[in-house]
Amino acid sequence: MAKVPRTDGPTARRRQPESRRADLVAAARILFFERGVDRTSVEDITRAAGVAHGTFYLYFDTKDDAVNAVMADVAEGVVARIAAAAAEQDTPAVEKLSTVCDALVGLSAPGSSAARDLVAHYHGPEHRDVHDRLAHEVNRQLVPVMAGIVAQGVAEGAFEAADSTAAAAFALSAIEGLDLLGHRGSEAAAVPTAELTRFILRGLGSSL
To answer: What global pTM score does this model have?
Structure first.
Protein backbone atom coordinates (compact mmCIF):
# COMPACT_ATOMS: atom_id res chain seq x y z
CA MET A 1 0.00 0.00 0.00
CA ALA A 2 1.40 3.37 -1.01
CA LYS A 3 1.85 6.11 1.53
CA VAL A 4 -0.25 9.24 1.38
CA PRO A 5 1.47 11.49 -1.22
CA ARG A 6 3.61 14.22 0.34
CA THR A 7 5.74 17.04 -1.05
CA ASP A 8 9.34 17.52 0.04
CA GLY A 9 11.10 20.83 0.61
CA PRO A 10 11.02 23.84 2.96
CA THR A 11 7.49 24.90 1.96
CA ALA A 12 6.15 21.44 2.72
CA ARG A 13 7.88 21.48 6.11
CA ARG A 14 6.32 24.85 6.96
CA ARG A 15 2.87 23.64 5.97
CA GLN A 16 3.25 20.28 7.68
CA PRO A 17 1.50 21.19 10.96
CA GLU A 18 -1.53 22.37 8.98
CA SER A 19 -1.64 19.30 6.77
CA ARG A 20 -0.84 16.56 9.29
CA ARG A 21 -4.48 16.01 10.28
CA ALA A 22 -5.47 15.78 6.60
CA ASP A 23 -2.64 13.30 6.01
CA LEU A 24 -3.82 11.18 8.93
CA VAL A 25 -7.44 11.21 7.74
CA ALA A 26 -6.37 10.33 4.19
CA ALA A 27 -4.22 7.45 5.45
CA ALA A 28 -6.95 6.17 7.77
CA ARG A 29 -9.49 6.33 4.94
CA ILE A 30 -7.31 4.23 2.65
CA LEU A 31 -6.58 1.68 5.34
CA PHE A 32 -10.14 1.43 6.64
CA PHE A 33 -11.41 0.83 3.10
CA GLU A 34 -8.67 -1.71 2.37
CA ARG A 35 -8.58 -3.64 5.65
CA GLY A 36 -11.54 -2.56 7.75
CA VAL A 37 -11.41 -0.72 11.05
CA ASP A 38 -10.57 -3.63 13.34
CA ARG A 39 -7.57 -4.71 11.24
CA THR A 40 -6.13 -1.21 11.16
CA SER A 41 -4.09 0.06 14.10
CA VAL A 42 -3.11 3.60 15.01
CA GLU A 43 0.46 2.62 14.19
CA ASP A 44 -0.64 1.53 10.70
CA ILE A 45 -2.26 4.94 10.17
CA THR A 46 0.74 6.95 11.35
CA ARG A 47 3.14 4.82 9.30
CA ALA A 48 1.06 5.33 6.15
CA ALA A 49 0.82 9.07 6.85
CA GLY A 50 4.57 9.30 7.41
CA VAL A 51 4.32 10.82 10.90
CA ALA A 52 5.40 9.79 14.38
CA HIS A 53 3.06 7.59 16.38
CA GLY A 54 2.46 10.28 18.99
CA THR A 55 1.39 12.77 16.33
CA PHE A 56 -1.89 10.90 15.96
CA TYR A 57 -2.89 11.88 19.49
CA LEU A 58 -2.35 15.57 18.80
CA TYR A 59 -5.45 15.40 16.59
CA PHE A 60 -7.47 12.39 17.78
CA ASP A 61 -8.05 10.92 21.22
CA THR A 62 -8.85 7.43 19.90
CA LYS A 63 -9.06 5.45 16.67
CA ASP A 64 -12.84 5.91 16.83
CA ASP A 65 -12.28 9.66 16.45
CA ALA A 66 -10.43 8.89 13.23
CA VAL A 67 -13.41 6.79 12.10
CA ASN A 68 -15.64 9.83 12.62
CA ALA A 69 -13.23 12.03 10.67
CA VAL A 70 -13.06 9.58 7.79
CA MET A 71 -16.84 9.30 7.55
CA ALA A 72 -17.14 13.09 7.58
CA ASP A 73 -14.59 13.22 4.76
CA VAL A 74 -16.51 10.58 2.79
CA ALA A 75 -19.81 12.40 3.33
CA GLU A 76 -18.26 15.69 2.18
CA GLY A 77 -17.19 14.00 -1.05
CA VAL A 78 -20.66 12.55 -1.61
CA VAL A 79 -22.31 15.95 -1.12
CA ALA A 80 -19.85 17.52 -3.58
CA ARG A 81 -20.54 14.79 -6.14
CA ILE A 82 -24.30 15.29 -5.84
CA ALA A 83 -24.03 19.08 -6.07
CA ALA A 84 -21.88 18.80 -9.20
CA ALA A 85 -24.34 16.39 -10.82
CA ALA A 86 -27.29 18.64 -9.93
CA ALA A 87 -25.58 21.63 -11.57
CA GLU A 88 -25.22 19.93 -14.96
CA GLN A 89 -27.21 21.92 -17.50
CA ASP A 90 -28.14 19.23 -20.01
CA THR A 91 -28.98 16.33 -17.68
CA PRO A 92 -32.67 15.51 -17.13
CA ALA A 93 -33.96 15.65 -13.55
CA VAL A 94 -34.73 11.91 -13.55
CA GLU A 95 -31.08 11.12 -14.26
CA LYS A 96 -29.97 13.54 -11.56
CA LEU A 97 -32.28 11.85 -9.06
CA SER A 98 -30.74 8.50 -9.94
CA THR A 99 -27.28 9.95 -9.27
CA VAL A 100 -28.43 11.16 -5.84
CA CYS A 101 -29.74 7.69 -4.98
CA ASP A 102 -26.56 5.99 -6.21
CA ALA A 103 -24.33 8.32 -4.20
CA LEU A 104 -26.30 8.08 -0.95
CA VAL A 105 -26.83 4.32 -1.19
CA GLY A 106 -23.07 4.02 -1.63
CA LEU A 107 -22.59 6.04 1.55
CA SER A 108 -24.93 3.82 3.59
CA ALA A 109 -24.15 0.49 1.90
CA PRO A 110 -20.77 0.53 0.13
CA GLY A 111 -19.78 -2.41 -2.02
CA SER A 112 -16.58 -3.83 -0.51
CA SER A 113 -16.57 -5.87 2.68
CA ALA A 114 -13.95 -3.60 4.29
CA ALA A 115 -16.04 -0.52 3.48
CA ARG A 116 -19.15 -2.19 4.91
CA ASP A 117 -17.12 -2.95 8.03
CA LEU A 118 -16.27 0.74 8.32
CA VAL A 119 -19.94 1.76 7.96
CA ALA A 120 -21.10 -0.89 10.42
CA HIS A 121 -18.46 0.25 12.93
CA TYR A 122 -19.56 3.85 12.46
CA HIS A 123 -23.16 2.85 13.22
CA GLY A 124 -22.13 1.52 16.61
CA PRO A 125 -23.66 3.13 19.71
CA GLU A 126 -20.40 4.89 20.57
CA HIS A 127 -20.72 6.92 17.36
CA ARG A 128 -24.45 7.61 17.53
CA ASP A 129 -24.25 11.31 18.46
CA VAL A 130 -21.61 12.06 15.83
CA HIS A 131 -23.48 9.99 13.25
CA ASP A 132 -26.73 11.85 13.86
CA ARG A 133 -25.04 15.25 13.65
CA LEU A 134 -23.32 14.29 10.39
CA ALA A 135 -26.55 12.90 8.88
CA HIS A 136 -28.37 16.10 9.83
CA GLU A 137 -25.65 18.25 8.25
CA VAL A 138 -25.61 16.18 5.05
CA ASN A 139 -29.39 16.46 4.68
CA ARG A 140 -29.27 20.18 5.48
CA GLN A 141 -26.87 20.69 2.59
CA LEU A 142 -28.75 18.38 0.23
CA VAL A 143 -32.32 19.65 0.70
CA PRO A 144 -31.79 22.75 -1.48
CA VAL A 145 -29.86 20.69 -4.03
CA MET A 146 -32.62 18.09 -4.21
CA ALA A 147 -35.25 20.85 -4.30
CA GLY A 148 -33.57 22.21 -7.40
CA ILE A 149 -33.74 18.78 -9.02
CA VAL A 150 -37.43 18.45 -8.14
CA ALA A 151 -38.19 21.92 -9.50
CA GLN A 152 -36.38 21.03 -12.72
CA GLY A 153 -38.38 17.81 -12.99
CA VAL A 154 -41.62 19.73 -12.52
CA ALA A 155 -40.59 22.15 -15.27
CA GLU A 156 -39.78 19.22 -17.54
CA GLY A 157 -43.17 17.65 -16.84
CA ALA A 158 -41.54 14.60 -15.24
CA PHE A 159 -42.56 15.32 -11.62
CA GLU A 160 -45.56 16.64 -9.77
CA ALA A 161 -44.81 18.61 -6.61
CA ALA A 162 -46.55 21.67 -5.22
CA ASP A 163 -43.64 22.37 -2.87
CA SER A 164 -40.24 21.34 -4.21
CA THR A 165 -38.51 21.78 -0.84
CA ALA A 166 -40.98 19.54 0.98
CA ALA A 167 -40.76 16.98 -1.82
CA ALA A 168 -36.97 17.08 -1.57
CA ALA A 169 -37.13 16.44 2.18
CA PHE A 170 -39.49 13.49 1.64
CA ALA A 171 -37.20 12.00 -1.01
CA LEU A 172 -34.11 12.35 1.17
CA SER A 173 -35.99 10.79 4.09
CA ALA A 174 -36.75 7.75 1.92
CA ILE A 175 -33.09 7.39 1.02
CA GLU A 176 -32.03 7.90 4.63
CA GLY A 177 -34.22 4.94 5.54
CA LEU A 178 -31.48 2.71 4.13
CA ASP A 179 -29.29 3.95 6.96
CA LEU A 180 -31.47 1.92 9.31
CA LEU A 181 -30.25 -1.17 7.48
CA GLY A 182 -26.65 -0.01 7.27
CA HIS A 183 -25.93 -0.58 10.96
CA ARG A 184 -27.32 -4.13 10.73
CA GLY A 185 -24.61 -5.28 8.33
CA SER A 186 -24.82 -5.84 4.59
CA GLU A 187 -28.62 -5.98 4.20
CA ALA A 188 -28.79 -2.52 2.65
CA ALA A 189 -26.44 -3.65 -0.10
CA ALA A 190 -29.18 -6.00 -1.29
CA VAL A 191 -31.61 -3.12 -1.92
CA PRO A 192 -31.40 -2.28 -5.65
CA THR A 193 -30.80 1.38 -6.24
CA ALA A 194 -33.17 1.22 -9.21
CA GLU A 195 -35.96 0.06 -6.91
CA LEU A 196 -35.32 2.94 -4.52
CA THR A 197 -35.28 5.40 -7.42
CA ARG A 198 -38.60 4.05 -8.75
CA PHE A 199 -40.12 4.38 -5.27
CA ILE A 200 -39.11 8.04 -5.07
CA LEU A 201 -40.21 8.71 -8.65
CA ARG A 202 -43.67 7.34 -7.86
CA GLY A 203 -43.80 9.65 -4.86
CA LEU A 204 -43.01 12.55 -7.19
CA GLY A 205 -45.86 11.58 -9.48
CA SER A 206 -43.68 10.13 -12.22
CA SER A 207 -44.82 7.15 -14.27
CA LEU A 208 -41.26 6.13 -15.12
So the answer is: 0.79
pLDDT truncated to tens, each residue of the chain (208 aa)? Answer: 545 545 444 444 444 666 899 999 999 999 999 998 999 999 999 999 999 999 999 999 999 999 999 999 999 999 999 999 999 999 999 999 999 988 888 777 666 677 777 877 887 888 888 888 888 999 999 999 999 999 999 999 999 999 999 999 999 998 887 766 554 444 444 556 788 888 999 999 887 6
> Where do the domains of the chain lie, and which CATH numbers do they carry?
1-60 (1.10.10.60), 62-203 (1.10.357.10)
From residue 66, give the alpha-carbon distance in Å to each of 19, 52, 157.
15, 16, 45
70, 148 Cβ separation under 8 angstroms:
no
C-alpha 201/C-alpha 205 separation (Å) is 6
Q: What is the distance between the alpha carbons of residues 173 and 203, in angstroms, rounded to a whole number? A: 12
Q: Which of 22, 34, 189, 14 is nearest to 118 (CA)?
A: 34
